[in-house]
């Protein structure tokens, strides 16, 4: 079963996109005083890109903190990012940065809230990707 970990700011754009996917999802806390999220299962990370087109600050600090935990980082199997095409070359840069650092695929890029086509593509892509990385019951024995 596909598991998603995501970060969404107070605007909720990423949260709304994730909810449309219909897969189990866990939100990285928005505020430092919120309980820290620990994961113990494979997941796909979905994150917005910050920084207004600058490389510095492209990955949200909350995502950095989450991934600085070695256990959390070890379960990440891929990343999907959102951004704004007005950022030019920095469009969805957070996903590129995380993909390079964690050596996982940057699976998809979408703008702002994403479209219904984005939701459909991501849903199907996750289903296909997960079936390739998850052992079948016969493989587990």
TrEMBL record:
<dbReference type="Pfam" id="PF07972">
    <property type="entry name" value="Flavodoxin_NdrI"/>
</dbReference>
<comment type="function">
    <text>Probably involved in ribonucleotide reductase function.</text>
</comment>
<comment type="similarity">
    <text>Belongs to the NrdI family.</text>
</comment>
<dbReference type="InterPro" id="IPR020852">
    <property type="entry name" value="RNR_Ib_NrdI_bac"/>
</dbReference>
<dbReference type="InterPro" id="IPR029039">
    <property type="entry name" value="Flavoprotein-like_sf"/>
</dbReference>
<dbReference type="InterPro" id="IPR004465">
    <property type="entry name" value="RNR_NrdI"/>
</dbReference>
<protein>
    <recommendedName>
        <fullName>Protein NrdI</fullName>
    </recommendedName>
</protein>
